[in-house]
Amino acid sequence: MAATPRFRDDASATPHNDGAPDTAPSDRKHPVDETLPPLKMFTSGLQHVAAMYAGVVAPPMIVGPAVGLSPKETAFLMGASLFTAGIATLLQTLGFWRIGARLPFVNGVSFAGVTPMVAIGKDRGHDGIAVIFGAIIVASLLGFVLAPYFCKLVRFFPPVVTGTVITLIGVSLLPVAFNWSQGGNATAHDYGSTTNIIMAAVTLVIVLALRKLLRGFLQQIAILLGLIIGTLIAIPVGITDFGALKNADAIGFPTPFHFGAPQFEIAAIVSMSIVMLVCMTESTADMLALGKIVDRPADERTIEGGLRADTLGSAISPLFNGFMCSAFAQNIGLVAMTKVRSRFVVAAGGGILILLGLVPVAASVIALVPLPVLGGAGIVLFGSVAASGIQTLAGAALEKGENALIVAAAVGVGLIPIAAPDFYHAFPKDLLVVLDSGISTGCVVAIVLNLAFNHLGRKADSDEAGTAPGGHDPVKAMEVAAH
Asked: Are the C-beta atoms of 135 and 265 separated by less than 8 Å?
């Protein structure tokens, strides 16, 4: 049997899976800490930006008109969101002190906050935006304080839980890709047209063909190449919009507090604090998923740093007119597919995001990619996340105890917002912030059922003393997490 390669881990002194210290260190860096040649760094980073661009600009596109902002002011919000997403991504990937997961982890505007932000600021103009920003600042600072305690949830994420959550992340993202494939705007006359869907299918085939035919670095940027080729094909088809490029300014800076000083209202703060807890739950799940994919398991310290970067980035964001920032799961799929694990690649993507926020005309070039083209590529990206979750579940000893039942119930509950979007329509609106997130609800169900079936009220009855059914040793997990 070939020996497992060992890497020098500069970010932390995490022991190997057997819990023993590494007594034979190697000069080779862990792939997460490796740097690539400049051209590869830039193109791989650009690929990450292309994969998440639509997700960053979508929330301000919804919130801006809802609160009564003009098209020009909404465009300003979009640029600010790109700029602050870049700052948050740099905090995550590069980090300082005990801030940052130091993983190839992309941060951007959280979609979980869109509904409550619209409710807070609807038809209030600049005052509405100021109240939203004030609530985000307070909620983010509270999240920063809670991060060292919240990260301890990692001990409740054995493979049966992490596999379930990773699968739900991928499955929950697939409807986004399907929506993009139809055109992205359900009110548009061509939404769901055969042209849009065929364009998405063509892009999907192009990406798959490039992954099959290309080798080396070109294979790693197959998604980017697929988006470029798909966009070129879409021009004669007539679904590429050049309007944003024509009207974009050459230079623009997100002036601090452009819409006025933040205002603080208790109801708005409570609402956004709930959103922050949802974001922290999803970020924890995303870090566990990404840590497994890049072969650097996320322990308590990693998650604490990641949550601090999330919350600090969110607290800084309103200063530059941006919204709450959180993990972007679609980029986890890109890491899983390309096998490019360097966090410095994603840091390069963060730099590109900052540049796009400062140069609106450059951001408009990225915006030329039609949503059906992005949707075709998204099917591969998001499906890759779900596949990683299934792979994790394959090693979660589903034949033991009630592990299969845990997965069944958690996936079933997590799929409710996807399969039946109006299922919770009679519940209070404040609860919908949590219930409408299948990732959060599925995660909570998986954790609670794992505790109920595998830990509470029963002795260790697995093959090894002290090991709960499913192959998870809670004592060992805590020791690794505390390291």
From this structure: yes
Which of these, 479, 452, 483, lies nearest to 468 by C-alpha position?
Answer: 452
Measured over the CA atoms of residue 259, residue 261, residue 266 and residue 271, the dihedral's sign is positive
pLDDT in tens, 356-405: 888 877 766 766 788 898 888 888 877 877 887 888 788 777 887 788 99
Contact between residue 109 and residue 324 where contact means Cβ atoms under 8 Å apart: yes
The backbone region for 7, taken as left when phi is positive above 0, alpha when psi lies in -120 to 50, beta otherwise, is beta
Pair of tokens at residue 77:
């919000």
The b/e string for 412-441 (b: 16+ C-beta within 10 A; e otherwise) is: ebbbbbeeeeeebeeeeeeeebbbbbbbbb
The pLDDT tens digits for 313-324 are 999 999 998 898
Residue with tokens 């090991």, as numbered in its chain: 467
Tell me how crowded residue 130 is: count the other CB atoms within 10 A of its CB: 21
Average pLDDT score over residue span 86-109:
89
Which tokens is 459 given?
């002795």
CA angle 175, 176, 177 (to 5 degrees): 90
Q: Which two tokens stand for residue 458?
A: 């029963």
Query: Could you report the per-residue pLDDT of 403-431, keeping only the tens digit for each?
Result: 899 999 999 998 998 888 889 888 887 67
Q: Using the 8-state DSSP alphabet, how is residue 228 labeled?
A: H
- Measured between alpha carbons, how far is 434 from 464 in angstroms, rounded to an integer? 37
| Rounded Cα gap, residues 200 and 369, in angstroms | 12
Q: Which helix (H) or strand (E) holds 86?
A: helix 71-93
Q: Which amino acid does the sequence have at 73?
A: E
Q: Of the candidates 376, 299, 381, 295, which has an alpha carbon nearest to the alpha carbon of residue 106?
A: 381
Q: What global pTM score does this model have?
A: 0.68
Per the structure block, which two tokens stand in for 98?
A: 């005990």
